[in-house]
């Protein structure tokens, strides 16, 4: 698996008296198999636009997106998306939500077994028949992740998947996602505006800044591997190296903000 | 500010006047949510209102304040119901009048659902369909059915067709417009998720857009059949020999006020029963309505 974004730019045309927005400008990004790429940046710096390009919901104004040698021209089952919210189907129970992708692909016969596997993996066993609207926000996000995994995508795209969760649930969910990343060997592209989350989860970090949206810094990160090697999450996050990098990234982001403002 | 709890009881100002509810807000009891507009149970008040209305009705007729020609007594309405049930009205028993009217309204309603729901969905999904069908629907929709009743009769005769068609037209517009608006209920994330699993446009319509539109479609059906009952009397104005609307109209020509009022109550009762059924269906079919 290899994802290549070459010189991609996105300009949203002017509308209703507002000038055109250069949401992304000359983005270059290379994602290897098993990478966990985290895009970090303030609201409006083009993170979702970048994810929509990879997902194939949006075509770039210029440049291109290449997945395993072929151009991305639209959405497809090799790229699953986990959204921040509103993406589950409230008329289906947990199991049918998880099996939804497979059923759409006509793999209904295998769907229940595969769904059961990912329901167990995400710790949702026993809730198969529950209506999704009755679940907590954290459990709803786990249903969304299980659903995205069932179709065995090459890359998992997550747009602020933990953004609506409370702090405690959020830390648990970060750990769960990392364990699943390790167990399934997936490639992940995750968006967040939490610096701590970005540093803890990614193997590669891209820091983005707005107007025009671009990648301003890139870091390689060691922290998620440490956690997966057995160091407790809080200990990883409290380490001197983690805190120093966190402060550095925060300085970068605040400096950006001041330039813009 | 004084702490009320430390004041002697006789010093507390009474707060029960009607206007105090408007002028000041007080804390709710546990189990209620503070500040929800209009919260509270209305069942007892509703029952009391109905009983009071019946009592006033009975009182003005029993004291001879109003002549039976204008307002017959409640008892006479019940008697009339039993009488028409047993002896019939213009040769047909009451149940036949009820049956034929119900068949007309429901026939028109089912037809309106069968055409209006798919057409409304298509209008929601396709700008071409919307461009074509929006003007005709918006033009005829505000016109009262009585105005185009003569046209229906000229075109389709005095048989069942023109009657059902008249009711159909009044039911059709709200149902089609409801289905069209319902298309917008699906969250864009739900639609994107389906497409990213490789769904076709048809699958997205079938598995995401249609189910999310169900609450609005059911509401539109409820509103639509309400319009159907409203149009019934107009539909049975010309060349009908059976039906509740016909019964009410011809009774009014002979100044049989009690039959008129009885017919009105029968229509109200059937329409209300159907509304209850629709609400029940709504709770069963879309228990998730408004929850996500
Ligand atoms: N469909 C759109 N039309 C016009 N402008 C848009 C659209 N989507 C996003 N934008 C603008 O593009 C910029 C980047 O948006 P987005 O990618 O959603 O940022 P982020 O996800 O980082 O908050 C913002 O200034 C936003 O207002
Ligand atoms: Mg965003």
Automatic annotation (TrEMBL), chain A:
GO MF annotations in UniProt:
ATP binding
Known PROSITE patterns for this protein?
ABC_TRANSPORTER_1 (PS00211), ABC_TRANSPORTER_2 (PS50893)
Q: Where is the ABC transporter domain?
A: 3-235
| This protein's UniProt keywords | ATP-binding, Cell inner membrane, Cell membrane, Membrane, Nucleotide-binding, Translocase, Transport
Task: Give a single Pfam family match.
Answer: ABC_tran
Q: Which InterPro entries match?
A: AAA+_ATPase, ABC_transporter-like_ATP-bd, ABC_transporter-like_CS, ABC_transporter_ATP-bind, P-loop_NTPase
Name the family the entry cites. Answer: Belongs to the ABC transporter superfamily.
Quote the protein name from its UniProt record. Answer: Taurine ABC transporter ATP-binding protein
UniProtKB/TrEMBL annotation, chain B:
Matching PROSITE patterns? ABC_TM1
Q: Does the keyword Chaperone apply?
A: no
- Kindly give the CDD domains that the UniProt entry links to this protein: TM_PBP2
Q: Which PANTHER family does this chain map to?
A: ALKANE SULFONATE ABC TRANSPORTER-RELATED, MEMBRANE SUBUNIT, TAURINE TRANSPORT SYSTEM PERMEASE PROTEIN TAUC
UniProt name for this protein: ABC transporter permease subunit
Give the coiled coil ranges.
none
So which domain of life are we looking at? Answer: Bacteria
Q: Which residues form the ABC transmembrane type-1 domain?
A: 98-278
Query: What is its subcellular localisation?
Result: Cell membrane
Q: Which UniProt keywords apply?
A: Cell membrane, Membrane, Transmembrane, Transmembrane helix, Transport
Entry membrane topology: Multi-pass membrane protein
Where, by residue number, does the polypeptide cross the bilayer?
44-70, 106-127, 139-158, 164-183, 223-248, 254-274
Record Pfam families = BPD_transp_1
Classification via InterPro entries = MetI-like, MetI-like_sf
Q: To which species is this protein native?
A: Paracoccus fontiphilus
Q: In which family does this protein belong, per the annotation?
A: Belongs to the binding-protein-dependent transport system permease family.
């Amino acid at each position: 698996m290899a994802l290549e974004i070459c010189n991609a730019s996105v300009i949203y045309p002017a509308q209703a008296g507002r000038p055109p927005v250069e949401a992304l400008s000359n983005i270059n990004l290379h994602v290897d198999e098993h990478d966990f790429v985290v895009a970090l940046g303030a609201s409006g710096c083009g993170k979702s636009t970048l994810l929509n390009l990879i997902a194939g919901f949006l075509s770039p104004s210029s440049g291109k997106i290449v997945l395993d040698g072929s151009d991305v021209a639209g959405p497809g089952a090799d790229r699953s998306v986990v959204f921040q919210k509103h993406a589950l189907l409230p008329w289906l129970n947990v199991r049918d939500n998880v099996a939804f992708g497979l059923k759409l692909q006509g793999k209904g016969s295998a769907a229940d077994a595969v769904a059961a596997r990912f329901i167990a993996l995400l710790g949702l066993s026993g809730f198969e028949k529950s209506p999704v609207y009755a679940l907590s926000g954290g459990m709803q996000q786990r249903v969304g992740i299980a659903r995205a995994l069932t179709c065995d995508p090459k890359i998992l795209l997550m747009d602020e998947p933990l953004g609506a969760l409370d702090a405690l649930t959020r830390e648990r969910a970060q750990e769960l996602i990392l364990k699943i990343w390790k167990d399934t060997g997936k490639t992940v592209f995750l968006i967040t505006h939490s610096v701590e989350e970005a540093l803890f989860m990614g193997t590669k970090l891209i820091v983005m800044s707005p107007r025009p949206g671009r990648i301003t810094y890139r870091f390689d990160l060691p922290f998620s591997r440490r956690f997966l090697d057995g160091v407790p999450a809080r200990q990883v996050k409290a380490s001197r190296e983690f805190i120093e990098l966190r402060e550095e990234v925060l300085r970068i982001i605040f400096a950006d903000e001041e330039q813009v403002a | 500010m004084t702490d009320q709890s430390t004041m002697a009881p006789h010093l507390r100002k009474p707060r029960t006047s009607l206007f105090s509810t408007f002028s000041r807000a007080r804390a709710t009891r546990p189990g209620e949510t503070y500040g929800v507009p209009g919260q509270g149970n209305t069942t007892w008040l509703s029952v009391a209102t109905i009983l009071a209305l019946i009592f006033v009705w009975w009182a003005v007729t029993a004291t001879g304040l109003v002549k039976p020609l204008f307002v017959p007594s409640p008892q006479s309405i019940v008697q009339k119901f039993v009488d028409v049930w047993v002896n019939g009205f213009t040769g047909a028993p009451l149940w036949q009048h009820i049956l034929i009217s119900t068949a007309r309204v429901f026939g028109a309603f089912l037809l309106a659902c069968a055409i209006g729901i798919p057409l409304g969905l298509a209008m929601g999904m396709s700008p071409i369909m919307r461009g074509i069908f929006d003007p005709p629907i918006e033009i005829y929709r505000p016109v009262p059915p009585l105005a185009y009743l003569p046209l229906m009769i000229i075109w389709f005769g005095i048989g069942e067709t023109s009657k059902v068609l008249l009711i159909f037209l009044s039911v059709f517009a709200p149902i089609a417009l409801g289905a069209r608006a319902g298309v917008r209920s699906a969250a864009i994330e739900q639609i994107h998720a389906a497409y990213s699993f490789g769904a076709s446009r048809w699958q997205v319509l079938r598995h995401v857009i249609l189910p999310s539109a169900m609450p609005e479609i059911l509401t539109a059906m409820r509103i639509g059949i309400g319009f159907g009952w409203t149009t019934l009397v107009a539909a049975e104005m010309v060349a009908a020999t059976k039906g509740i609307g016909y019964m009410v109209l011809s009774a009014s020509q002979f100044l049989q006020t009690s039959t008129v009022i009885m017919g009105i109550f029968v229509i109200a009762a059937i329409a209300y029963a159907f509304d209850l059924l629709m609400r029940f269906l709504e709770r069963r079919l879309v228990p998730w309505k408004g929850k996500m």
